[in-house]
Amino acid sequence: MYRPSEETGGKSQCTACPARAKAICGVLTGDDLATFGALGRHRRLARGQTLMWEGDAADSVANVISGVLKLATAGVGGDEQIVGLAWPADFVGSPFGAACGCSVTALVDSEVCLFPRATFGPFLDDHPEMERALVTRAFADLDKAREFQAMLGRRSAGQKVAALLLAMADTGDVVFLPMSRQEMADLLGLTIETVSRQLGRLAGQGLIDLPDRRSVRLRRRDALEAFAVA
């Protein structure tokens, strides 16, 4: 089982990393992978612990190994606005900007592979295949962000909740919710009362089960998908 140690170099762990195949470093092999792994260090984050703060100097970047991180900015009134989620194999941080564009905080106990910008940048310069992978990931993330913003603008509250559940479910039918009801509301631009009401409505329609506050079971996935895009 993959058990990297706290704040240690990643050289010996890269080949066993469960996220590597889908991460930007998945394009590396052999000595290149070992060299890259040696640049980073594994870091465990407890639920609620912040890895990066909005506006701070962008001096590090990271690959998510396990868990879920939220990306958030300060709203006009100073309230937190969740702008995205980072899952295993996702890349977080600002590899080119001077400051962090958002705060990055663990929603559940998580683990990342952290790289200093001072060494990450030169490595990219010498390995164009990984630079291309990073650019490809950035464009994919931008497309997802655009789709998400469009979804917020044209879907009903129930459809927004359904779409979020489907996104978190991926290919499985049991969803572990890394977010509280309030965090779901913040992400979807709804109130916590609306989120709770819509979850109850979906359950009442037989589309989902709510066994506890932290999990959802999709009972009729096809019907939920059809509802989310209707």
What would you note in describing this structure?
By secondary structure, this protein is an alpha+beta fold. The protein folds into two domains: 14-142, Sandwich (Jelly Rolls); 152-229, Winged helix-like DNA-binding domain superfamily/Winged helix DNA-binding domain (Arc Repressor Mutant, subunit A, Orthogonal Bundle). 39% of the residues lie in helices and 23% in strands. The protein contains seven helices and eleven strands. The protein has a four-stranded antiparallel β-sheet with strand order 1-8-3-6. Strands 2-7-4-5 form a four-stranded antiparallel β-sheet. The model is unreliable at 1-12 (pLDDT under 50).
Strand and helix layout:
Elements: H1 30-39, E1 41-45, E2 50-52, E3 60-66, E4 69-74, E5 80-86, E6 91-93, E7 103-106, E8 110-116, H2 117-126, H3 128-154, H4 157-169, E9 174-176, H5 181-188, H6 192-204, E10 208-212, E11 215-218, H7 221-229
Helix pairs in contact: 4-6, 4-7, 5-6
